[in-house]
Design goal:
single chain, 421 residues, Growth Hormone, Chain: A, 83% helix, 0% strand
Amino acid sequence: MKAGAFEPLKFRPFRSLFGAQLFSDLGNWLDFIALQVIVAYHWRLDETAIAAVIITLGLPWVIIGPFASVFVDRLPKKQMMITCLFLRIVFVVGMFLAPNLYILLIFVFLKGTVSAIYDPARQSAIRFTVPDDYLPEAVTLSQLSVNSMKIIGPALGGALIYLFGTRSPFLFEAAGFFIAILFLLTLPNIGEKEYIAENKKTDDGHYWKELSEGIKHISHTPLLKSSVILSSVAFFIIFLYDGLFVFIAQNLGFTKGNFGLLISAVGMGSVAGSLLMGSWTRWKRKPIHLMSVAFLFSGSLIIIMGLGSMEIVQLPVLAWVMGAFFLGFMSSGESVPYGFILQSETPKQIMGRVSAASASIQTFSMLIAPALGSLLAKWLGASFVLIGAGGATCLLGAFVLSFIVRRINDQKEIHEKRFQA
């Protein structure tokens, strides 16, 4: 009998993997504030430089991750993750010493490259550390780590900058990666030996053939293909308005002193949603249904915020904070089911390639959306962009739900015809 979201932690291999993920995720977000502070305040560069940093962070996931994923599937995951973490320490030290933007961007790209290799390896390793019955809880814990560190990392990074200086988060980030290595050293090589041996038997040396298997698996697996498309479209919509959120907050009555409350509320909501989904796992029977319902509710909240930005809806600041909390809460109804589908619908031997391919599609949509959102905001205004994004999110959820209902009705008709015959 399973006890809840933290039940997978009773398996020692998963404890080692999850401990490493906590410190790895913390490192991913610890330098988020530091990079922006160095570029904007220390070097006094403009928005173009900040955009260059953000694009450089995401680019390896699109152009490097999918091509490296073949080797992720061929090689032992434990050794690969340890190597990636060691290289991340080296590149973070490079970021710490970078004298100008160009050198910084080189190390940011290199760190992003090993991160794009590390994550598919970690995704693959999950299947070797817990029984399949515990996948929903394991995926939920993984998502909980990501969501928690999105809050803790930037906040801790800001505190470290205040206490120890602008570049100090990089040193703490390197220390976090070292602790993650220590966790991975306790990870046993369970289940991989036979799988790697089988891979070697079937390996015909055709790199491009192996590379295409990830995309082919996504396209030939209806549930996985639907979830990847849905999550990619959702990411695109989110990043249309993500960079405009500060301007929306100003229109809602937030000052620079309490703007952080709005962002923190979104993060806390996503953590709460992840915890609930780890304790209540009946959603795993119909994950696409849950994603669609989450789109409807989150889209409605986004529309209301857009109307509030136009002063059509007027609410106190506390009410907007609560709305942001539920927006984050609903985001877990999109991200956790996607993670579960990715794991449950993909064979272990191609997990790296499928994970990297899906991440590449999602990241590409995230990279092109901010520029379009900025152009639309200049043309229509940030409030209209937010309302449009909310409407698109609702339409996405409604379209998928209507498709599901139509498919159920078609199946009923087929069943009735067979029964009558």
